[in-house]
Design brief:
By secondary structure, the protein is an alpha+beta fold. The protein has a single domain (2-178, 221-277, 308-339), classed as Malate/L-lactate/L-sulpholactate dehydrogenase, NADPH binding domain (Ribosomal Protein S8, Chain: A, domain 1, 2-Layer Sandwich), CATH 3.30.1370.60. It has eleven helices and twelve strands. The strands form three sheets. The protein has a seven-stranded mixed beta sheet, with helices on both faces. The termini are close together. 48% of the residues are buried.
Length: 345
Protein backbone atom coordinates (compact mmCIF):
# COMPACT_ATOMS: atom_id res chain seq x y z
CA UNK A 1 0.00 0.00 0.00
CA UNK A 2 1.00 3.62 -0.46
CA UNK A 3 1.16 5.98 2.50
CA UNK A 4 1.48 9.76 2.31
CA UNK A 5 4.94 10.93 3.35
CA UNK A 6 3.55 13.36 5.94
CA UNK A 7 1.43 10.63 7.56
CA UNK A 8 4.33 8.16 7.65
CA UNK A 9 6.65 10.80 9.09
CA UNK A 10 4.14 11.52 11.89
CA UNK A 11 3.87 7.78 12.56
CA UNK A 12 7.67 7.51 12.92
CA UNK A 13 7.77 10.57 15.17
CA UNK A 14 5.03 9.22 17.44
CA UNK A 15 6.77 5.85 17.74
CA UNK A 16 10.10 7.46 18.57
CA UNK A 17 8.49 9.58 21.27
CA UNK A 18 7.08 6.47 23.00
CA UNK A 19 10.62 5.39 23.95
CA UNK A 20 11.42 8.79 25.52
CA UNK A 21 13.10 10.35 22.51
CA UNK A 22 13.16 14.16 22.96
CA UNK A 23 11.00 16.15 20.53
CA UNK A 24 13.89 17.60 18.52
CA UNK A 25 15.73 14.29 18.19
CA UNK A 26 12.51 12.47 17.25
CA UNK A 27 11.86 15.02 14.50
CA UNK A 28 15.39 14.82 13.11
CA UNK A 29 15.35 11.02 13.09
CA UNK A 30 11.90 10.86 11.48
CA UNK A 31 12.99 13.34 8.78
CA UNK A 32 16.04 11.25 7.88
CA UNK A 33 14.00 8.05 7.72
CA UNK A 34 11.33 9.61 5.50
CA UNK A 35 14.00 11.02 3.20
CA UNK A 36 15.25 7.46 2.65
CA UNK A 37 11.72 6.18 2.01
CA UNK A 38 11.02 8.95 -0.49
CA UNK A 39 14.17 8.26 -2.46
CA UNK A 40 13.51 4.54 -2.79
CA UNK A 41 16.12 3.60 -0.20
CA UNK A 42 13.63 1.33 1.52
CA UNK A 43 16.35 -0.45 3.47
CA UNK A 44 16.97 2.72 5.53
CA UNK A 45 13.42 3.90 6.21
CA UNK A 46 10.39 1.91 7.30
CA UNK A 47 12.41 -1.29 7.60
CA UNK A 48 14.57 0.22 10.36
CA UNK A 49 11.95 1.56 12.77
CA UNK A 50 11.05 -1.75 14.50
CA UNK A 51 14.78 -2.53 14.94
CA UNK A 52 15.42 0.92 16.37
CA UNK A 53 12.56 0.66 18.85
CA UNK A 54 13.60 -2.80 20.04
CA UNK A 55 17.16 -1.56 20.59
CA UNK A 56 15.85 1.39 22.63
CA UNK A 57 13.44 -0.78 24.63
CA UNK A 58 16.14 -3.23 25.71
CA UNK A 59 18.53 -0.40 26.64
CA UNK A 60 21.12 -0.94 23.94
CA UNK A 61 20.37 2.57 22.67
CA UNK A 62 19.63 5.39 25.13
CA UNK A 63 16.77 7.17 23.35
CA UNK A 64 16.60 10.11 25.77
CA UNK A 65 20.27 11.05 25.34
CA UNK A 66 21.42 14.02 23.27
CA UNK A 67 24.74 14.34 21.41
CA UNK A 68 27.41 16.83 22.51
CA UNK A 69 30.47 18.44 20.94
CA UNK A 70 33.43 17.11 22.90
CA UNK A 71 35.99 19.44 21.41
CA UNK A 72 36.90 21.78 18.56
CA UNK A 73 40.50 22.03 17.35
CA UNK A 74 41.38 24.21 14.34
CA UNK A 75 39.05 23.01 11.52
CA UNK A 76 38.02 19.77 13.25
CA UNK A 77 35.35 18.83 15.81
CA UNK A 78 34.55 15.64 17.69
CA UNK A 79 30.90 14.82 18.40
CA UNK A 80 29.94 12.28 21.06
CA UNK A 81 26.58 10.66 20.40
CA UNK A 82 26.10 9.65 24.06
CA UNK A 83 24.73 6.34 22.77
CA UNK A 84 21.60 8.12 21.53
CA UNK A 85 20.08 8.28 18.07
CA UNK A 86 22.56 8.36 15.20
CA UNK A 87 20.68 10.81 12.99
CA UNK A 88 20.73 13.79 15.42
CA UNK A 89 24.37 13.05 16.17
CA UNK A 90 25.30 13.08 12.48
CA UNK A 91 23.32 16.28 11.89
CA UNK A 92 25.20 17.97 14.76
CA UNK A 93 28.44 16.89 13.09
CA UNK A 94 27.24 18.34 9.77
CA UNK A 95 26.59 21.67 11.50
CA UNK A 96 30.08 21.55 12.98
CA UNK A 97 31.58 20.88 9.55
CA UNK A 98 29.66 23.80 8.03
CA UNK A 99 30.87 26.10 10.82
CA UNK A 100 34.46 24.89 10.57
CA UNK A 101 34.49 25.29 6.80
CA UNK A 102 33.07 28.80 7.15
CA UNK A 103 36.06 29.73 9.30
CA UNK A 104 38.80 27.77 7.55
CA UNK A 105 37.55 26.88 4.05
CA UNK A 106 37.66 23.19 5.00
CA UNK A 107 35.98 21.43 7.90
CA UNK A 108 35.80 17.96 9.39
CA UNK A 109 34.09 16.17 12.23
CA UNK A 110 34.55 12.78 13.79
CA UNK A 111 31.69 11.00 15.56
CA UNK A 112 31.92 8.38 18.28
CA UNK A 113 29.61 6.55 20.70
CA UNK A 114 26.59 6.63 18.42
CA UNK A 115 24.24 4.27 16.58
CA UNK A 116 23.05 3.76 12.99
CA UNK A 117 23.00 7.20 11.30
CA UNK A 118 20.84 6.28 8.28
CA UNK A 119 21.95 7.13 4.76
CA UNK A 120 25.19 9.08 4.40
CA UNK A 121 23.71 10.85 1.36
CA UNK A 122 21.17 12.64 3.57
CA UNK A 123 23.99 14.60 5.24
CA UNK A 124 26.09 14.96 2.10
CA UNK A 125 23.20 16.68 0.30
CA UNK A 126 22.86 19.18 3.16
CA UNK A 127 26.54 20.04 2.77
CA UNK A 128 26.23 20.37 -1.01
CA UNK A 129 23.36 22.79 -0.44
CA UNK A 130 25.80 25.01 1.45
CA UNK A 131 28.30 25.09 -1.42
CA UNK A 132 30.52 22.34 -0.03
CA UNK A 133 31.97 19.24 -1.61
CA UNK A 134 31.99 16.45 0.95
CA UNK A 135 33.00 12.98 2.00
CA UNK A 136 30.84 11.08 4.51
CA UNK A 137 31.42 7.59 5.89
CA UNK A 138 30.27 5.49 8.83
CA UNK A 139 31.21 2.10 10.17
CA UNK A 140 28.90 -0.71 11.23
CA UNK A 141 28.79 -4.08 12.96
CA UNK A 142 30.97 -6.80 11.40
CA UNK A 143 29.09 -8.28 8.45
CA UNK A 144 31.88 -8.84 5.94
CA UNK A 145 35.13 -10.82 5.89
CA UNK A 146 38.32 -9.10 4.78
CA UNK A 147 39.33 -10.21 1.30
CA UNK A 148 40.71 -13.72 1.58
CA UNK A 149 38.97 -14.43 4.89
CA UNK A 150 35.74 -16.19 5.87
CA UNK A 151 35.07 -14.56 9.27
CA UNK A 152 33.07 -11.30 9.47
CA UNK A 153 35.45 -8.59 10.72
CA UNK A 154 34.46 -5.44 8.80
CA UNK A 155 31.15 -3.69 8.41
CA UNK A 156 29.54 -3.02 5.04
CA UNK A 157 30.78 0.50 5.80
CA UNK A 158 29.27 2.95 3.29
CA UNK A 159 31.23 5.73 1.64
CA UNK A 160 29.58 8.81 0.17
CA UNK A 161 30.74 11.78 -1.92
CA UNK A 162 28.70 14.82 -2.91
CA UNK A 163 29.19 17.96 -4.97
CA UNK A 164 26.91 20.89 -5.77
CA UNK A 165 25.89 21.18 -9.41
CA UNK A 166 24.31 23.94 -11.53
CA UNK A 167 20.64 24.88 -11.03
CA UNK A 168 20.69 23.92 -7.35
CA UNK A 169 21.22 20.24 -8.09
CA UNK A 170 23.51 17.82 -6.28
CA UNK A 171 25.60 14.93 -7.54
CA UNK A 172 25.85 12.35 -4.77
CA UNK A 173 27.02 8.76 -4.61
CA UNK A 174 26.37 6.70 -1.48
CA UNK A 175 27.43 3.07 -1.65
CA UNK A 176 28.03 0.15 0.65
CA UNK A 177 31.48 -1.38 0.41
CA UNK A 178 29.79 -4.78 0.12
CA UNK A 179 28.19 -5.97 -3.13
CA UNK A 180 24.87 -4.69 -1.71
CA UNK A 181 23.82 -3.08 1.54
CA UNK A 182 22.82 -5.57 4.23
CA UNK A 183 19.46 -3.81 4.39
CA UNK A 184 18.62 -5.30 0.98
CA UNK A 185 19.06 -8.78 2.39
CA UNK A 186 17.01 -7.82 5.45
CA UNK A 187 14.26 -6.58 3.14
CA UNK A 188 14.40 -9.76 1.04
CA UNK A 189 14.16 -11.83 4.22
CA UNK A 190 11.10 -9.87 5.38
CA UNK A 191 9.45 -10.52 2.01
CA UNK A 192 10.46 -14.20 1.93
CA UNK A 193 12.52 -13.68 -1.23
CA UNK A 194 15.79 -15.22 -2.37
CA UNK A 195 18.88 -13.15 -3.21
CA UNK A 196 21.25 -13.37 -6.20
CA UNK A 197 24.35 -15.55 -5.95
CA UNK A 198 27.45 -13.55 -5.12
CA UNK A 199 25.79 -11.29 -2.55
CA UNK A 200 26.49 -13.20 0.64
CA UNK A 201 27.82 -16.28 2.41
CA UNK A 202 26.01 -18.47 4.95
CA UNK A 203 27.37 -19.06 8.47
CA UNK A 204 29.62 -21.83 7.13
CA UNK A 205 31.22 -19.51 4.56
CA UNK A 206 29.38 -20.92 1.54
CA UNK A 207 27.77 -18.79 -1.16
CA UNK A 208 24.01 -18.67 -0.63
CA UNK A 209 20.84 -17.36 -2.28
CA UNK A 210 18.80 -17.90 0.90
CA UNK A 211 18.22 -14.45 2.41
CA UNK A 212 17.61 -15.83 5.91
CA UNK A 213 20.80 -17.91 5.78
CA UNK A 214 22.67 -14.82 4.55
CA UNK A 215 21.56 -12.86 7.63
CA UNK A 216 23.24 -15.53 9.75
CA UNK A 217 26.38 -15.38 7.61
CA UNK A 218 28.29 -12.51 6.01
CA UNK A 219 28.28 -10.13 3.07
CA UNK A 220 30.77 -10.19 0.21
CA UNK A 221 32.92 -7.11 -0.50
CA UNK A 222 32.31 -5.02 -3.60
CA UNK A 223 34.97 -5.72 -6.19
CA UNK A 224 36.77 -8.20 -3.97
CA UNK A 225 39.91 -6.62 -2.46
CA UNK A 226 38.79 -3.13 -3.55
CA UNK A 227 35.63 -3.15 -1.45
CA UNK A 228 37.49 -4.78 1.41
CA UNK A 229 40.13 -2.05 1.33
CA UNK A 230 37.52 0.72 1.25
CA UNK A 231 35.68 -0.81 4.20
CA UNK A 232 38.94 -1.01 6.12
CA UNK A 233 39.71 2.68 5.56
CA UNK A 234 36.18 3.63 6.54
CA UNK A 235 36.79 1.84 9.84
CA UNK A 236 40.10 3.67 10.25
CA UNK A 237 38.43 7.08 9.79
CA UNK A 238 35.27 6.26 11.77
CA UNK A 239 36.59 4.00 14.49
CA UNK A 240 40.34 4.26 14.95
CA UNK A 241 40.61 8.03 14.33
CA UNK A 242 37.28 9.12 15.88
CA UNK A 243 37.65 6.95 18.99
CA UNK A 244 34.56 4.85 18.26
CA UNK A 245 34.40 1.06 18.14
CA UNK A 246 35.78 -0.70 15.07
CA UNK A 247 35.87 -4.15 13.51
CA UNK A 248 34.55 -6.90 15.77
CA UNK A 249 34.09 -4.44 18.66
CA UNK A 250 30.98 -2.86 17.08
CA UNK A 251 27.73 -4.46 18.28
CA UNK A 252 24.69 -5.12 16.12
CA UNK A 253 21.11 -3.95 16.68
CA UNK A 254 19.87 -7.33 15.48
CA UNK A 255 18.87 -10.05 17.95
CA UNK A 256 18.79 -9.43 21.68
CA UNK A 257 22.10 -7.64 22.12
CA UNK A 258 22.17 -5.14 25.00
CA UNK A 259 25.78 -3.95 24.61
CA UNK A 260 26.46 -0.43 23.34
CA UNK A 261 27.02 -0.43 19.57
CA UNK A 262 29.71 2.26 19.62
CA UNK A 263 29.27 3.23 15.97
CA UNK A 264 31.48 5.96 14.54
CA UNK A 265 31.38 8.27 11.51
CA UNK A 266 33.55 10.84 9.77
CA UNK A 267 32.55 13.87 7.69
CA UNK A 268 34.82 16.17 5.69
CA UNK A 269 33.98 19.11 3.40
CA UNK A 270 35.61 21.92 1.42
CA UNK A 271 34.15 25.19 0.11
CA UNK A 272 34.09 25.27 -3.68
CA UNK A 273 34.36 29.07 -3.78
CA UNK A 274 37.98 28.75 -2.67
CA UNK A 275 38.64 27.67 -6.26
CA UNK A 276 36.25 30.18 -7.86
CA UNK A 277 32.54 29.40 -7.60
CA UNK A 278 31.52 30.64 -11.05
CA UNK A 279 34.31 28.73 -12.77
CA UNK A 280 33.45 25.61 -10.78
CA UNK A 281 29.83 25.59 -11.93
CA UNK A 282 30.82 26.28 -15.53
CA UNK A 283 33.28 23.39 -15.54
CA UNK A 284 30.79 21.17 -13.71
CA UNK A 285 28.12 21.87 -16.34
CA UNK A 286 30.62 20.97 -19.06
CA UNK A 287 31.54 17.68 -17.39
CA UNK A 288 27.87 16.80 -16.82
CA UNK A 289 27.09 17.38 -20.49
CA UNK A 290 29.96 15.09 -21.47
CA UNK A 291 28.76 12.31 -19.16
CA UNK A 292 25.04 12.49 -19.90
CA UNK A 293 25.65 13.06 -23.61
CA UNK A 294 27.86 10.01 -24.04
CA UNK A 295 26.90 7.39 -26.62
CA UNK A 296 24.44 4.98 -25.03
CA UNK A 297 25.29 1.37 -24.36
CA UNK A 298 23.13 -1.44 -25.67
CA UNK A 299 19.87 -1.71 -23.74
CA UNK A 300 20.15 1.75 -22.13
CA UNK A 301 17.85 4.68 -22.84
CA UNK A 302 19.47 7.34 -20.66
CA UNK A 303 22.61 8.03 -18.66
CA UNK A 304 21.79 9.09 -15.10
CA UNK A 305 24.06 11.05 -12.80
CA UNK A 306 24.61 9.58 -9.32
CA UNK A 307 21.61 10.52 -7.18
CA UNK A 308 19.39 11.46 -10.14
CA UNK A 309 17.20 8.35 -10.03
CA UNK A 310 16.61 8.89 -6.31
CA UNK A 311 15.55 12.49 -6.99
CA UNK A 312 13.01 11.33 -9.55
CA UNK A 313 11.74 8.66 -7.15
CA UNK A 314 11.34 11.26 -4.40
CA UNK A 315 9.22 13.51 -6.61
CA UNK A 316 6.97 10.61 -7.59
CA UNK A 317 6.57 9.31 -4.04
CA UNK A 318 5.95 12.76 -2.63
CA UNK A 319 3.08 13.11 -5.08
CA UNK A 320 1.66 9.58 -4.89
CA UNK A 321 2.70 8.22 -1.51
CA UNK A 322 5.42 5.87 -0.30
CA UNK A 323 4.88 2.17 -1.15
CA UNK A 324 5.19 -0.08 1.90
CA UNK A 325 5.25 -3.86 1.40
CA UNK A 326 2.87 -6.08 3.37
CA UNK A 327 5.60 -7.67 5.56
CA UNK A 328 7.10 -4.27 6.44
CA UNK A 329 3.62 -2.82 7.09
CA UNK A 330 2.86 -5.77 9.35
CA UNK A 331 6.01 -5.11 11.40
CA UNK A 332 5.24 -1.38 11.62
CA UNK A 333 1.71 -2.03 12.87
CA UNK A 334 2.99 -4.68 15.28
CA UNK A 335 5.32 -2.02 16.73
CA UNK A 336 2.43 0.45 16.86
CA UNK A 337 0.37 -2.02 18.87
CA UNK A 338 3.27 -2.77 21.22
CA UNK A 339 4.01 0.90 21.86
CA UNK A 340 0.41 2.05 22.07
CA UNK A 341 -0.12 4.26 19.02
CA UNK A 342 -2.62 4.07 16.18
CA UNK A 343 -1.63 1.65 13.38
CA UNK A 344 -1.22 2.60 9.75
CA UNK A 345 -4.22 1.88 7.58
Amino acid sequence: MRIAAAALRTFYYDLLRTVNTPEEEAGITADALIDADLRGLDTHGALRIPLYLKAAKRGMLQAANKPIVEWRKKAVSLVNGNNGWGQPTALMAVQEVISNAGLHGVGAAGINNTNHIGTCAYYARILAGRGLMSFVTTNSAPNMPPWGGSEPILGTNPICFSAPAPDGKTIVIDMATSVVAKGKIMLASEKGETIPAGWALDKDGRNTTDSKAALQGSMLPLGGPKGSGLALFSDIFCGVLSGANYGKNIKTMLGNNTDTAGVGAFIWAIEIDLFGEADFYSRMADLISMVTGAKLGEGFEKIFLPGEIEEETARERLANGIPVSSPVLHNLNKAAQEFGISPLS
